Amino acid sequence: MEPVPEIHRVWPGPGGTPLTDEGIAAAYPRLDRPHLRVNFVTSVDGAVALDGYSAGLSGEADKRVFKLLRGVCDALLVGAGTLRHEGYGPVRLDAARRAWRREQGLAEYPTLVVVSGRLDLTPDNPALAAAPVRPIVLTCGSSAAERRKALAEVADVQVYGETELDLTAALDHLRSVGLRQLLCEGGPHLFGALTSADLVDELCLTVSPLLAGPGAARITAGTPSPPRPLALAHVLAAGDVLLLRYLKIDKT
Ligand SMILES: NC(=O)c1ccc[n+]([C@@H]2O[C@H](COP(=O)([O-])OP(=O)(O)OC[C@H]3O[C@@H](n4cnc5c(N)ncnc54)[C@H](OP(=O)(O)O)[C@@H]3O)[C@@H](O)[C@H]2O)c1
Fold this sequence. Notes:
Blueprint: E1 8-11, H1 21-26, E2 35-43, H2 60-72, E3 75-79, H3 80-85, H4 95-103, E4 111-115, H5 126-129, E5 136-139, H6 145-151, E6 156-159, H7 167-176, E7 181-184, H8 188-196, E8 202-208, E9 230-238, E10 241-248
Parallel strand pairs: 2-7, 2-8, 3-4, 3-7, 4-5, 5-6
Antiparallel strand pairs: 1-9, 8-10, 9-10
The protein binds NADP nicotinamide-adenine-dinucleotide phosphate.
The site of NADP nicotinamide-adenine-dinucleotide phosphate has 30 residues, from strand 2, helix 3 and helix 8.
């Protein structure tokens, strides 16, 4: 097993002592307002995947933060493309994190929320069928009624919008049922749609020290959007890997 990577704070200082898990978690706080955090890993030249998968960009430091972010959210939002392609399994948290969540008055596990227009998903998908908390599937009115019915065996299927999913209404509903701290793990089309609807409050970006070269897509895709200014909240470093946290400008 690889040693646990030391993670240091670069900005704001001081650097020096490696952060503990608690120190890292404190750098990614739960906020006292509804909040959508997005987490991605990229190469220095902006690739979203290597050979089609994020795994080639990730490493121990990225995985450590990825796990911590899952541990502090109320719901985990993912596009159906990423769920299908990356072979998502059910969300798992270790006993210490579950105990921490109980102490904070949170549900033991975050709720998985899958975003899909076509509902090209089956109820035996392990992320849905073996989920520790009944998942939610967000879709729009143009999805097939029989697919909605099939998925309703294992998930709450919710419809927002007729031909296009109304993400603003969907997220409002999640918040109204107590799912206020949302973590989106991608992928690019979902991130693009959330950016376009101006729903992104935070971007956590791991920059992996390599050049992927031409060919790969970016971390965002799909719907055009005006530029959304961000403020840098911190820079953590684990060797050559940077862990950046940016906040929407009016949320700082
Ligand atoms: N580097 C990273 O951190 C990272 C993270 C995640 C993914 N990835 C990579 O990204 C690639 C997948 O990209 P992707 O853009 O296909 O991922 P995606 O955004 O997860 O999936 C796109 C699919 O999700 C559903 N979807 C997303 N936004 C929607 C919206 N606004 N309304 C309705 N449905 C929506 C649709 O599903 P239906 O087709 O069912 O309608 C759509 O076809 C893979 O290579 C994966 O490895 C990388």
